[in-house]
Protein 1
Amino acid sequence: MNKYFYVSILLGAFALSGCTDDKADNKEFTEEAAPIPLNLTKEQKEDYYNQYLEIVEDLGVEYPSATMGVIPFDEILDEDWVEPEKQRELSINFLENGVFFAN
């Protein structure tokens, strides 16, 4: 009987502690705002697109088992353009973690 009493106390303390993620308890934790779309000229978009192609080529060497590509230039929406270095980060995050965060 005492054994069950102690187990119930432990479970009760565990449940009352909240068992939460530290990030949720952190008052300084805030969600990132949606990225501000870039206002690029057609020439800038072409330059970014060429850099995207280079990124895919470079990452193809680093991650040979991955099949990657870039969608056609005219299919990229204005709000989808990101700085090439940000695109590299997003691509690496996807390749290593299977997660693609746009922020």
Protein 2
Amino acid sequence: MSAVILFAVACTPEDSAISTSTPVNAGAVVDSGPYICKLVPEKAFLLVSGTNGPPGEKISGDEANGNCWTSNIAPKLLEVVWMQETPESTRGYLDEVMEDRRRVFTRHGAAVLPSDLGEGFAVYFPEGPFSDQPYQVTARFSCGGKGRIIDLNVAQVAKGRDGIRDMIELMRIAQKRYGQLYKCTPGE
């Protein structure tokens, strides 16, 4: 019997892949500080992107409208954009922004976000003008009675990860952090 087992092992090609149902980089996307761009957990981002940190960041804009991106890694591995309903950025303007995004994202097979995250989509753009940050998620939600939009754009996802699912989980955390930082409850 030991000869049969030895023969089976000896005849297994060296380059054959061992099939597993668990991805190589299978850790959960969880909320823990420190944060990149105030909204994205650094550990979760490094897990999702498969990069080593810590990434630097640059911020442009203010509390109501702005963006932030990783600065010491090229291309921008992460970009976060936020908008808030203000007298200058009216509810109608936010409607137009989301309508434009809906048209583009759905044309590329976007997944609709779970309803608890508001109106939004997650998509992978493998080519074209968005291919430098092909993993994108956008969400419009209320917080403190005002319309808000958050976009998260990621340049790469680690091998074996579900990029769309990870982007949705990063959005879930970003909205929760947004509420904590700006003293409002997402969804209200």
Protein 3
Amino acid sequence: MLAQNTKMNTQYTQMRKQSAFLLAESTEMRKQSSILSKQYAFLLAESTEMRKQSSILRKQ
């Protein structure tokens, strides 16, 4: 019985470590997603501005 309890405690500890690792990974992925979203918005605005400028130059 003691051996089984020890094994279960070990497994529980491993699962807690895995859970903490996955939480950290998830947090990092959310940060990266936020950064990429901001970069995309910036690049979209830049692209829009470049199209406007290109249109103006073609009309001249």
